[in-house]
TrEMBL record:
Any single Pfam family the record assigns to this protein: DegT_DnrJ_EryC1
InterPro entries in the record: DegT/StrS_aminotransferase, PyrdxlP-dep_Trfase, PyrdxlP-dep_Trfase_major
Family from the record: Belongs to the DegT/DnrJ/EryC1 family.
Gene3D superfamilies named in the record: Type I PLP-dependent aspartate aminotransferase-like (Major domain)
Keyword Transmembrane helix: no
Keyword terms of this UniProt record: Pyridoxal phosphate
Protein name: dTDP-4-amino-4,6-dideoxygalactose transaminase
Keyword presence, Lyase: no
Length: 359
C-alpha cells in the first residue's frame, strides 16, 4: 500500500451530503452564499474574533493582500517557503528582497531584516514555516520603526497559538491556504485574516470584482469561493483540535523511532507556542544522504517531499542575494509522511526504513 506524504481528510459522506441538500434546495452556488458566510463567521470565532475573508486559494489570498495594502517597490521576504510566496510578490509587480532564515525554526531571521531595508521597502512578507512562528514581536517592532506593512504567509499556521493569541492574528494581514493537503482544508481554498474591518471590506470588494450589484467601487478579481468548498470547511473545522492531538501523538512516535540518527528537527523558540503539527520535516546531514533515503523510500511506495526546494533566491526566473542558511536547509530538508490517519505501526515502519537506508 502506498503511503503518501500527506492525505486529505474526508468527513463522513452523509455529513457532507446534508450540506449539499441545502445547496440544491437554494440553488445558490457561489457569490457569498450562506455557507460561505457561516464558514467565515466560524473561522472568525476560531481565530480570536478576527476578520476573515474566504478566498478561492492561498495564492490569490497573497496577491489580494499585497494589492489591498497598496504595496509597491521592495518587499522583504523569505527564501525558504513555497514558491507562491515569491511569485505573488512578482505577480503584483513588486520586487522580492530575500533575507536569510535562522537555523532553528527556518523562519525569516528578524535580526537580518533591518540591514535589507531601503527607501524602496514597503513591507515584510514572512512565512511561518511548517507552522513554527516567526519572531512576530521583533518583526512588529521593526515594521513600526520603519513604517512598513507586515504580511504573514500562514499556509501552515492554522491552529497555532503564540503569546496567548492565534498566530494568524499578527501582522497587518495573514494569509492561509486551505488546500486539500492542509491540516484544515476546504478542498481548494484560502483566507485572509486581519483585525481591521475597513480593510476587510476592501478585500471583500477586491475578491468580488470590485462591485456590489450595479454599484462599482474599485478594481477587483474573482477570488471568491463556492458553497461546496465552504461545506467541506464546515465539516472539517470542528475536527481540527482532534486532528492536532492525533498528529501530536504521531510526531512523538517519529521522534522516538528516529532518535540517535544524525537528523536535525525544527525547534521552536517561543515557550508560549501551542503547535499544530502541520508537517514532519527532518534535515539530513547531506543532500546526497537525503536523495538516497528518498529514493529508497519511494521504492517501498513511501512518498516524501523536498519541502522546500530550491531556496527561492535561486529560482531560474528571479535570483536574489546569497542566503547560505536557506540554501543549505533546502538541500537537506525532507518531509516524511504525516497525517492523522497514519497508524502508529506505519510511522514505526517508515522510521525503520529511514534508519535502514540512512547508512
Amino acid at each position: 500500500m502506498t503511503i503518501n506524504v500527506t492525505k486529505a481528510y474526508l468527513p463522513p459522506i452523509a455529513e457532507y451530503t446534508a450540506y449539499l441538500e441545502g445547496i440544491w434546495e437554494r440553488s445558490w452556488l457561489t457569490n457569498n452564499g450562506p455557507l460561505v458566510q457561516r464558514l467565515e463567521a466560524d473561522l472568525s470565532r476560531y481565530l480570536d474574533d478576527t476578520q476573515v475573508q474566504f478566498t478561492s486559494n492561498g495564492t490569490i489570498a497573497l496577491q489580494v493582500a499585497i494589492k489591498a495594502l497598496d504595496l509597491n517597490g521592495e518587499i522583504i521576504t523569505t527564501p525558504f517557503s513555497y514558491v507562491a510566496t515569491t511569485t505573488a510578490i512578482l505577480w503584483e509587480n513588486c520586487t522580492p528582497v530575500f533575507v536569510d532564515i535562522e537555523d532553528r525554526t527556518f523562519c525569516l531571521d528578524a535580526t537580518k531584516i533591518e540591514a535589507a531595508i531601503t527607501p524602496r521597502t514597503s513591507a515584510i512578507l514572512a512565512t511561518h514555516v511548517y507552522g513554527y512562528p516567526c519572531d512576530v514581536l521583533a518583526i512588529e517592532d521593526i515594521a513600526h520603526r520603519h513604517n512598513l506593512k507586515v504580511i504573514y504567509d500562514g499556509a501552515h499556521a492554522f491552529g497555532v497559538r503564540v503569546h496567548g493569541r492565534s498566530l494568524l492574528s499578527y501582522g497587518d494581514l495573514s494569509t492561509c491556504s486551505f488546500h486539500a493537503t492542509k491540516l484544515f482544508h476546504t478542498v481548494e481554498g484560502g483566507a485572509i485574516v486581519m483585525n481591521d474591518k475597513e480593510l476587510a471590506r476592501k478585500i471583500w470588494l477586491y475578491k468580488s470584482f470590485g462591485h456590489i450589484g450595479d454599484e462599482y467601487f474599485t478594481i477587483g478579481v474573482n477570488g471568491k469561493n463556492s458553497e461546496f468548498h465552504a461545506a467541506m470547511g464546515l465539516c472539517n473545522l470542528p475536527r481540527v483540535p482532534g486532528f492536532i492531538e492525533q498528529r501530536r501523538a504521531l510526531a512523538a512516535i517519529y521522534r522516538q523511532e528516529l532518535a540517535g540518527l544524525p537528523l536535525q528537527f525544527p525547534e521552536p523558540t517561543e515557550e508560549s507556542l501551542e503547535y499544530n503539527y502541520a508537517y514532519f520535516p527532518v534535515l539530513f546531514d547531506s543532500e546526497s544522504r537525503l536523495l538516497r533515503v528518498k529514493e529508497a523510500l519511494a521504492a517501498q511506495t513511501v512518498n516524501t517531499r523536498r519541502y522546500f526546494f530550491p531556496s527561492l533566491n535561486q529560482l531560474p526566473y528571479h535570483q536574489g542575494a546569497p542566503c547560505p542558511v536557506s540554501e543549505d536547509a533546502s538541500r537537506r530538508a525532507l518531509c516524511l509522511p504525516f497525517y492523522q490517519e497514519l497508524t502508529a505501526d506505519q510511522v514505526r515502519w517508515v522510521s525503520q526504513l529511514v534508519r535502514n537506508y540512512h547508512y
